[in-house]
Design a protein that fits this description.
The complex is a heterodimer of chains A (186) and B (584). Chain A has 186 residues and is of the alpha+beta class. Chain A contains four helices and nine strands. In chain B, the strands form four sheets. A six-stranded parallel beta sheet of chain B has the order 3-2-4-5-7-6. The chains are: A alpha+beta (186), B alpha/beta (584).
């Protein structure tokens, strides 16, 4: 599959059925949902997942078009291909939903997440934390004599990697925004 | 020039503009301004119910029997929470409803005010959509949108929560044509290429089968008409779910009867053995499929549904066509005729020979008695004595419901109102009143069990007040029959809490309400008693005392495939294993 450069689970856009319909493959998909920015719309979307026991790995939401009252919800969800298809069609039939895009299937997409990490420590640990932050292009946005707050942007895996490195160096707290994603190209 | 009016007046004006003739409701503090507006007009009739659940079921019966949107009006707090069961029922059976609820004034929301409940929060998962309107200027547009959403695409219930201060305040009324019906425009035209694939499959299939559902009825009379033409011209056999009864006539020669857990032997074996399944407006409900891995293993499957999320939800299909049943059938019929109206005659003849063997089993046979009324016999007589009449049937939920589906024949759509998806005991009585309000001259019979019927019996008061001559045909076995049947089959005959103790005297109860009561416990008297019920000009409570321990067959035991169904006097010991017992 990798040699053909076909994404896992991309059956709806590939010429061949590559997956065994009986195998319980769990896939992770990033969905972008454009909705009317009205009260209760987020509860509606979340209720769709919680009411059926589906997973939400990450969720971000903010108004993206003030004039037409549109918000964009980015959801990272996991499930079998059948569940993912079902989630998409359930989202599509909701009244305040305008568009649903499966960025995992529809082609290459950029994904970014912002994280703030508070790391406390003295001496060697403090210097090592700062050095690693440079490598990861994290910025120091707050500093005391015994702590830093780093700000970093990247893919969720990059943030995971940085957080793992910070843990033995005195990671105290972490805040993450969840994934924002856009398809590449026009 | 925009018309200025209060929020309450807007509600009434919008209902008029939407062509609403009847509202089922119950007043309370938070809807007083709307009731005041209703008082001051004569175009919209208000039916005062006895409990809000009754209002929703009446609106459902009204909607299901007319094809129009049903409307109910309830107050805040308990009024709205009492509506929840009805809303869920309508959601699962795809019944278009607009429910209006009052709410505490906007400045009190969130203060735990008197009769305050988070109505939009509570009803979010049991409506197709809902709105909390906090600004009178937006109220009329939301009203128009609500009707659009309720009836477009897959129909369903919607709710508008209207705080009391919004009902009092004044604003410009948005006329219906000016209302933005949002982007919500579900696709109704099926993909022509996919329809072509369906038609190709139909030309070669050796063992084809139409499996139809409530979607045919929701699509309107045209869909039923096209379905009948298609069945007649192809000669394919047809079966239907509980919700779809009447879309193809029960007297039609290709009719196999209802399928599913208590469906007919020939219908279920045809589902299991077919090589082409044409699912038209049904949703592969668990009552239909039985054990999923063994469901119709040899067939290619086509699924026509207006709701994209129904396709491939339970059963993977070969061709999924998103569209309105009538539009898809019209296009399929056009293509099929254009290609020469071909079918595999040889295969079809063999298939019918096989089906006729299954039919010869006569799976609805039961042991009759001359001492006690068998419930099946009661329904056979009801069918025989009311056949050809302008008749509407509603039911409660349980054994009687399944027997009614098996033994009553429906020739036309919209004549059969039953709670299929949610299985709501207490649905039938209020639904029958809703039907009768819409069809005052017709014969409306609620086939009931005594336990279900008691759940909403207060609505007999409504029936009396509005002179709806609904006939309550209660098959009284003094048991929760279906619960008892399951306890017999899979809980070692330990009949835990499944009998009806301290039942009222139904004849005296009828008299207390001011209507007619009839009691019958002898098969010899049954015909005369049924005729007396039909001829009486007013509501009747018919207490039909039937055999107490009759089981409903055929039955596909839970966790089993279609071809392992139980017939009448079969040995039922241990047929349901531990895995099946956890299913419902």
């Amino acid at each position: 599959m990798n040699a053909l450069n076909i994404k896992k689970g991309s059956t709806s856009h590939s010429a061949y059925e590559l997956r065994d319909p009986n195998a319980p493959i769990i896939e992770s998909h990033t969905l972008a949902v454009v909705v009317d920015n009205e009260s209760g719309v987020l509860a509606r979307v979340i209720g769709l997942f919680s009411g059926r026991g589906y997973n939400i790995e990450s969720l971000t939401v903010a108004e993206t078009d003030h004039a037409s009252h549109r918000s964009r919800i980015t959801i990272v969800t996991t499930g079998t291909p059948q569940v993912i298809e079902h989630i998409k069609s359930l989202l599509e039939r909701m009244v305040p939903v305008h568009e649903v895009h499966d960025l995992t299937v529809e082609g290459p997409a950029v994904q970014r997440e912002l994280a703030l990490l508070k790391v406390a420590g003295r001496g060697e640990h403090r210097i090592e934390a700062l050095r690693l932050a440079e490598i990861f292009r994290a910025n120091v946005v707050d500093s005391t004599l015994e702590s830093f707050v780093f700000e970093m942007t990247g893919t969720p895996t990059k943030i995971d990697a940085f957080a793992d490195l910070m843990r033995p160096l005195g990671l105290v707290e972490i805040a993450r925004t969840g994934v924002a994603a856009l398809a590449r190209g026009v | 020039m925009a018309r200025q009016m209060t929020g309450a007046e807007m509600v009434v004006q919008a209902l008029k503009d939407q062509g609403v003739e009847v509202v089922f409701g119950y007043p309370g503090g938070a809807v007083l301004p709307i009731y005041d507006a209703i008082f001051q007009q004569n175009d919209i009739r208000h039916i005062l119910v006895r409990h809000e659940q009754g209002a929703i079921h009446m609106a459902e019966g009204y909607a299901r029997s007319t094809g129009k949107v049903g409307v109910a009006l309830v107050t805040s707090g308990p009024g709205a929470t009492n509506a929840v069961t009805g809303l869920t029922d309508a959601l699962l059976d795809s019944i278009p409803l607009v429910v209006l609820s009052g709410q505490v004034p906007t400045f009190m929301i969130g203060t735990d005010g008197f009769q305050e409940a988070d109505t939009v929060g509570i009803t979010r998962p049991c409506t197709k959509h809902n709105w909390l309107v906090k600004d009178t200027a937006k109220l009329s547009e939301v009203m128009h949108q609500a009707f659009h959403v309720a009836k477009s695409g897959r129909p369903g219930p919607v709710l508008i929560d209207i705080p009391k201060d919004v009902q009092f305040a004044t604003a410009d009324y948005t006329e219906m044509p000016a209302a933005k019906l949002s982007h919500y425009q579900p696709r109704t035209t099926g993909d022509a290429g996919l329809i072509a694939r369906m038609v190709e499959m139909m030309e070669t299939a050796e063992r084809p089968l139409f499996y139809t559902g409530g979607g045919v009825i929701n699509s309107g009379p045209k869909a039923s008409q096209l379905l009948r033409e298609f069945v007649a011209e192809t000669g394919f056999p047809i079966t239907s779910t509980l919700m779809g009864l009447g879309s193809y006539p029960a007297s039609g020669q290709n009719w196999l009867g209802m399928l599913g857990m208590h469906g007919l032997y020939e219908a279920n074996l045809a589902m299991h053995g077919c090589d082409l399944m044409l699912n038209i407006g049904a949703r592969f409900d668990d009552r239909i499929t039985g054990r999923i891995p063994d469901f119709s293993p040899m067939s290619r499957k086509v699924h026509v549904d207006i709701d994209p999320s129904s396709i491939n939800k339970v059963i993977h299909v070969d061709v999924g066509i998103i569209g309105d049943v009538a539009e898809v059938l019209a296009e399929a019929l056009r293509q099929w005729r254009a290609r020469g109206s071909k079918v595999n005659r040889e295969g079809l003849a063999k298939w019918w020979a096989q089906i006729n063997e299954w039919r010869a089993v006569k799976c609805l046979t039961y042991k009759n008695s001359d001492k006690v009324i068998k419930p099946q016999y009661a329904l056979e007589r009801l069918e025989a004595l009311t056949k050809g009449m302008d008749r509407y049937i509603t039911t409660e939920v349980g054994q009687h419901q399944m027997w009614a589906a098996q033994f009553l024949g429906f020739e036309d759509p919209n004549r059969w109102m039953t709670s299929g998806g949610l299985g709501t005991m207490g649905y039938g009585l209020p639904a029958s009143i809703g039907v009768q309000i819409a069809h005052p001259k017709s014969l409306v019979i609620n086939v009931a069990g005594e336990a279900s019927w008691l759940m909403n019996m207060q609505e007999m008061g409504t029936a009396m007040q509005f002179r709806t001559p609904v006939k309550q045909f209660i098959l009284n076995n003094e048991r929760l029959g279906m619960v008892r049947q399951w306890q017999e089959l899979l809980h070692g005959e330990r009949y835990s809490q499944s009998w009806s103790e301290s039942l009222p005297d139904f004849v005296k109860l009828a008299e207390a309400f001011g209507c007619k009561g009839i009691k019958c416990d002898d098969p010899k008297d049954l015909d005369d008693a049924i005729m007396e019920m039909i001829r009486y000009d007013g509501p009747v409570i018919f207490d039909c005392l039937v055999e107490k321990h009759e089981n409903c067959f055929p039955m596909i035991p839970s966790g089993k495939p279609h071809n392992e169904m139980l017939l009448g006097d079969a040995d039922t010991q241990g047929v349901i294993g531990a895995k099946g017992a956890v299913l419902v």
